[in-house]
Task: inverse folding
């Protein structure tokens, strides 16, 4: 697992349309504000067997502040995903940095 700052993650996603960006907060949290382009796969209901991304895809994981995303990154790696990125600071830092929501 790699850790990117919110600006690092935004820059990497801007460079490649192939980067998968998942928000693991609850649906209610996601509806209130989320990073532009993120898809919502809440940690509480996330079934790793149902993930349709390839195990070698670059997957950036974000939550509110970094705790839940770290746990999901670890689960993804345990399941064999090889290119997992934890977005440090989460949606809070994303919004504070003025990145698109």
Result:
């Amino acid at each position: 697992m790699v850790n990117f700052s919110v600006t690092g993650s935004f820059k990497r996603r801007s460079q490649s349309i192939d980067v998968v960006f998942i928000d693991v907060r609850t649906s209610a949290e996601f509806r209130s504000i989320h990073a532009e382009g993120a898809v919502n796969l809440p940690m509480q209901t996330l079934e790793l067997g149902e993930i349709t991304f390839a195990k070698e895809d670059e997957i950036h994981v974000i939550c509110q502040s970094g705790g839940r995303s770290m746990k999901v990154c670890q689960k993804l790696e345990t399941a064999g995903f090889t290119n997992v990125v934890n977005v440090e600071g989460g949606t809070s830092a994303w919004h504070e940095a003025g990145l698109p929501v």
In short: The mean pLDDT is 93. The CA atoms of residues 17 and 55 lie 17 Å apart. The first strand starts at residue 2 and ends at 4. The first helix runs from residue 6 to 15.
